[in-house]
Amino acid sequence: MSRIKSGIKGLDNLIQGGFPSRSVHLLQGPTGSAKTLFGLQFIHGGLKNQECGLFLSIEESRENMKRAIKSFDLDWKPYENGRSYLIDYGELRRGDLEDSVIGFKELQEFLDNFISENDIDRLVIDSISAISLYYSSPEKLRRSLFEFCRFLKEKDLVTLLITESVKSRLGVEGFVTDSVINLDYEDFEGEFRRSIKIYKMRFTKHDPYKHPFLILDGGIEVSEEETLR
């Protein structure tokens, strides 16, 4: 199976060289755990490899995304002409509907043409937490998310779905996606440390342990040799 480099230093060695092609991954974690940075770095890694990437923000403004890119010294300018897309989906929909909450069907309708017309290889949606509020039951959420993930795989790209772990609907998202990656910011023996753990990844013999990571110039770096308990 072909592998797609994650763009996160130290991570690929924990997942057999990268993400499986045509796959959908769930990145979860509490506020402040660097989920958005992870997503931006994933897109940036593809840009450096001559791929096209779309970062679709459901709640954050495009200006905030650009500030994050600048803050972590991600060299984005060489890829701004036709290779990278930062889209504020909330701004696109402003005034279109009375209800600001959207479902996966509406999102799929937008992405269907955009992905094909722009030859997108990598997609990040930040985040699906608000979208899950559209559904009245975990069963409806699971069915809709399953159909959405199948659509994404048919588009032949690698997708990262970001969610707040505290808002996860009974684990529905993790059941449907190909992997669950958890970021955290915890107190380890009196010291707060950031960590990453891969709970599952289909088609992959992944590392099962919790590893610390640092945020340095250029983004996240995972300490693949060190584990946390």
Summary of the model, kept short:
The chain has 229 residues and is α/β, with parallel strands linked by helices. 30% of the residues lie in helices and 28% in strands.
Explained architecture:
The two termini are 32 Å apart. The chain is globular. The protein has helices at 35-47, 62-71, 89-92, 104-118, 129-132, 138-154, 172-176, and strands at 3-4, 19-20, 24-29, 53-57, 84-88, 122-126, 158-164, 179-188, 191-201, 211-216, 219-222. The mean pLDDT is 90. Helices cover 30% and strands 28% of the residues. The protein has one domain: P-loop containing nucleotide triphosphate hydrolases (Rossmann fold, 3-Layer(aba) Sandwich). With 229 residues, it is an alpha/beta fold. A nine-stranded mixed beta sheet has the order 5-4-6-7-3-8-9-10-11.
Could you list the spans in which at least 5 consecutive residues all have pLDDT below 50?
Answer: none
What number is the mean pLDDT?
90
Strand content: 25-35%
What do we call the CATH topology?
A: Rossmann fold
- What is the CA-based Rg, rounded? 17 Å
Measured distance between first and last alpha carbons: 32 Å
What's the SSE pattern? EEEHEHEHHEHHEHEEEE
Number of DSSP strand runs? 11
Strand order of the largest sheet: 5-4-6-7-3-8-9-10-11
Number of helices: 7
CATH architectural type: 3-Layer(aba) Sandwich
Could you name the CATH homologous superfamily?
P-loop containing nucleotide triphosphate hydrolases
How many distinct folded domains?
1
Biggest beta sheet attributes: 9 strands, mixed
Shape: globular
Oligomer: single chain
Report helical residue fraction. 25-40%
Structural class: alpha/beta
- CATH class identity: Alpha Beta
